[in-house]
Structure formats: structure tokens, C-alpha cells
Write a structure and sequence with these properties.
single chain, alpha/beta, 6-stranded mixed sheet, flat, binds guanosine-5'-diphosphate, binds magnesium ion
Length: 462
């Protein structure tokens, strides 16, 4: 996909001005290019921060008419040389830390290109790390996730994956399958000996063990996805039930207008918040009711649209007024969506019996905040079937989850075949299918297409 025998260069720090900015080089010529950049003849000592003066070709130096020396000084920098193979990419890497000015950093990159480096493509440093076996594909994806993390829990999930938690678990399963296939194939290859390299009864047991280990990983995947991707949570209910009050409470920003006038919220008000580790997009809607006002009609239509695409719904009921047809319709409509039902305004005399609702509802008062502390855990429980999202080692991205699901299905077929004493060839074929899917997760077997899609997500310099 990319050539890997040349030396690449890119700015590794984000665009904009800052205290320092880092230019990164990787490849066989990293040391040579870096020496040219700092006008140095002797090699840079490995793993040591070395103070130096960056120079750029005279042609690039504005207003420099003197011709002393080979280049024009441009910045004071710190150069660090990480020799391969124990560098980030597995190749020789040099990091040049200069002052964080986009102009300076661009000049350094141009000078590196003039000295023989090539501008790196998005994700190319991490891609080289993958090709050189420094990390597998799960870890490469974790690098992108770690950089993109928007909540502390997202960062921890990605870090766990980068540290190899998933890689290690998958390797254990792969090793078991490899061993099993080898022994089954030996039995197939030497049928006359009447000797089984593995007891037929042990085959099903071994497969079931691997399937269970993979099943455990998959069991956590829903939680992993929730942390990684976040979810849309829609607040719905009759006008004046207290939806905007709940939105403001959850988001901590008083964006949605709260008034005693029914029909105040006329558009979808959206805010992204961290709810106990889950990155949730909370959407406040207009109360769903019959109306003739054109703006409110549109608002109600938008509320219905949001409801259709919600991952979870907070159904807000007003406990101080009789439930109406719209409330019952909403309860019916959301019966199959993960939801939290709130009976709001518990500070006022109740007009109906919450216990008689027939479904679990949390009594709260958004005015006094009584009972409100139960709201966040209830949302997470509705989305993840548990109240907290900690202990984070989990598959989290859909590519990995799809492949693990495929591997798991193949293992179940293999186990069933082993139990019903189907031919060993059939069992082996299913086990091989499972192994292939697992190898695709880690990238031991993969296509250029998949790699391109994964590394496209990265920025230049990663
Ligand atoms: N007494 C009482 N009033 C509330 C409570 N929650 C909201 N309200 C009031 O009910 C009215 C409607 O609230 P709002 O959040 O705008 O409801 P929305 O129309 O569903 O968005 C406002 O006057 C709020 O101050 C509550 O728990 N108790
Ligand atoms: Mg409102």
C-alpha cells in the first residue's frame, strides 16, 4: 500500500501555535536527514535529548543574503534519535522538537524533504509500526481511538487495547485453535494407525473452551462499543412534563429554555456529555402533542424523527397531572427501545399512582433535584445492561466485533460437528474459518483494502 524503504517526515503535533512543535522522521535515512537539518557531521547519540540549531537551505531563508555556512539558522531545537528496531515504527526514528510555530515546522519539513525525506501519508508512522510487527491491527486502531478519545473512559479503553489486552486474549484463543487443528490434521493424515492424536471427546471440549473465551470477549463488546461510539439519548414526553429541565440537569449547560408555557421547546436541542464514562448525545425535543401552530407542528415532527433513531429514550411523565393519551402512546411506542421512565414533579401532590403504571419508573423532582441522582446510572443501565462501565478491556470497534462474531459462529459449528461425530475434515474446516477471522482482527491476515480504510482515519504525523 505504501512504500516502506524510504524515509518519511511529518509534523507530529497538532496544527496551530504552541510551546513546542515536533517534526518526526522515520526510515533508513532518518539519522542522515536529521544531521542535515541541524548541520551536524557526527551521528546523533541514541535516546538522548540533544540540543541543536536547525538550519534550512539558503533558498528557503527569507532575507538572508550572507553566504556563510551551508544553511540559514531557523530555530533552536532538541533532537532525539530512537534507533530501530525498538522505536515506535520499528525503524530509525528522529524527533525534532522546535518552537511550536506552524511556519517554523513547515520550514523544517521542507528542509527534510530537500534532504531526501518524503512527506508521510496519514497514519504512515503507525502503519510502519504495524508492518514491522511492533503492534498488531487492534493496537493500531487503538492508537487512533486514544488520540480521538473524548472522555476519560474512552481513553482508558483505547489504552487497554494499545497495551495489548485484546491482542493477548485473541492470541491465547488462536494458539489453542492452532494446536487443535495440528492434532486433528495429524489424525486425518495418518488414518491407518488407528491412533488419534487427540481423543474425540477432548475435541469438542477444547473447541467449547475456545468458544467460551471468545464469547466472553464478545459479551463485553456492547459495553466497549457504547464507550467508544457513544449513543443518542432522546428526552421525550408531553409539553411541560419537565424535559428541558432534565436536559439542562444532564448537560449542566442551561441551553434549553424552561418556562411554564407548554410548547416552549421548538427545535431539537443537542449536547454531547460524558455520563458516567459514556459519551452521550442528549437531545431535548418539543413535547409531542396535537397542535395547529405550524412551527410547533414542525417541532413535533422533528421530535418524532429523533425518537425513531434514538438509542435510548428518557420518557418524562408529569406525576402531578393525569396521564394523557399522548403519554400512553409514548409508553407504547418506546416499549422496545432501551428507556428510562421518569415520573417528574414528585414535590407536587401526585395525580396518579406510579406503582400502577405497570413498568418501572423513577420518581424525581427536577425542581428540588430529589431522586435525580438515580438518573445517570439508570441511563447507563438501559444502554449497557449494567450501571457502570469500568473495567474496560473490551472489543469496541465494529470491524473487530464482526470478525469475532464470525469466528465464534464457526467455533460453534465446529463444536456441534465434533459432538455429532461429523468428519474430522469438516471440524477442521470450521476451525480454520474461525482462525482466519481471528487473524483478520489482529491483521496477521488482511487485505490492502482493509488496511487503507483503517489508516485513512489517522492524521498525518500519527
Ligand atoms: N414543581 C415542579 N415543577 C417543575 C419540575 N420540573 C419542571 N418543572 C416546571 O415545569 C415547567 C416546564 O418545565 P420544562 O423543563 O420546560 O418542561 P418541558 O416543556 O417538558 O421541556 C417549568 O415551569 C418548570 O420550572 C418539578 O420537578 N417540580
Ligand atoms: Mg422544553
Amino acid at each position: 500500500m505504501f512504500t516502506t524503504d524510504d524515509t518519511i517526515v511529518a509534523i507530529a503535533t497538532p496544527p496551530g501555535r504552541g510551546g513546542i512543535g515536533v517534526v518526526r522522521l522515520s526510515g533508513p535515512g532518518a539519522q542522515r536527514v536529521a544531521c542535515a537539518l541541524v548541520d551536524r557531521r557526527e551521528a546523533i547519540e541514541p535516546r538522548r535529548a540533544t540540543f541543536a540549531r536547525a538550519v534550512i537551505p539558503r533558498d528557503d531563508a527569507p532575507g538572508d543574503a550572507s553566504d556563510a555556512g551551508r544553511g540559514a539558522g531557523i530555530d533552536q531545537v532538541v533532537v532525539t534519535f530512537f534507533p530501530g528496531p525498538s522505536s515506535y515504527t520499528g525503524e530509525d526514528v528522529v524527533e525534532i522538537s522546535g518552537h511550536g510555530s506552524p511556519v517554523l515546522l513547515q520550514l523544517i519539513v521542507r528542509a527534510a524533504i530537500a534532504a531526501g525525506a518524503r512527506l508521510a501519508r496519514p497514519g504512515e508512522f503507525t502503519f510502519r509500526a504495524f508492518l514491522n510487527g511492533r503492534i498488531d491491527l487492534v493496537q493500531a486502531e487503538a492508537v487512533a481511538d486514544l488520540i480521538e478519545a473524548a472522555t476519560p473512559l474512552q481513553a482508558r479503553l483505547a489504552f487497554d487495547q494499545l497495551e495489548g489486552t485484546i491482542t493477548h486474549a485473541l492470541a491465547g484463543i488462536e494458539a489453542r485453535l492452532f494446536d487443535l487443528v495440528a492434532r486433528l490434521e495429524a489424525s486425518i493424515d495418518f488414518p491407518d494407525e488407528g491412533y488419534h492424536f487427540i481423543e474425540p471427546a477432548a475435541v469438542a471440549r477444547e473447541i467449547a473452551g475456545a468458544a467460551d473465551a471468545l464469547g466472553a470477549l464478545l459479551g463485553d463488546a456492547g459495553r466497549g462499543r457504547l464507550i467508544r461510539e457513544g449513543r443518542h439519548v432522546i428526552i421525550a414526553g408531553s409539553p411541560n412534563a419537565g424535559k428541558s429541565s432534565i436536559f439542562n440537569y444532564l448537560t449542566g449547560v442551561y441551553r434549553a429554555i424552561v418556562t411554564p408555557h407548554a410548547g416552549t421547546t421548538r427545535d431539537l436541542v443537542t449536547e454531547r456529555v460524558d455520563v458516567l464514562g459514556a459519551a452521550l448525545t442528549i437531545v431535548d425535543t418539543a413535547g409531542v402533542r396535537e397542535t395547529t401552530h405550524p412551527v410547533e407542528r414542525e417541532a413535533v415532527a422533528r421530535a418524532r424523527g429523533a425518537l425513531a433513531s434514538a438509542d435510548a429514550v428518557i420518557v418524562v411523565l408529569d406525576r402531578s397531572r393525569q396521564l394523557g393519551g399522548a403519554d400512553r402512546a409514548l409508553l407504547d411506542e418506546t416499549a422496545r427501545t432501551p428507556r428510562v421512565i421518569l415520573a417528574n414533579k414528585r414535590d407536587l401532590p401526585g395525580a396518579w399512582d406510579v406503582a400502577a403504571l405497570g413498568v418501572e419508573a423513577i420518581e424525581v423532582s427536577m425542581l428540588t433535584r430529589e431522586g435525580a441522582e438515580a438518573l445517570r446510572p439508570a441511563i447507563v443501565r438501559a444502554l449497557a445492561s449494567r450501571e457502570d462501565l469500568r473495567d474496560t478491556a473490551a472489543l469496541s470497534n465494529i470491524r473487530q466485533i464482526d470478525l469475532a462474531t464470525r469466528a465464534h459462529a464457526a467455533l460453534e459449528r465446529a463444536r456441534d460437528a465434533a459432538i455429532t461425530s461429523a468428519s474430522e475434515e469438516f471440524v477442521v474446516a470450521e476451525l480454520q474459518a474461525a482462525r482466519e477471522a481471528l487473524e483478520e482482527i489482529t491483521g496477521a491476515r488482511t487485505t490492502d483494502d482493509v488496511l487503507r480504510r483503517i489508516f485513512e482515519r489517522f492524521c498525518v504525523g500519527k
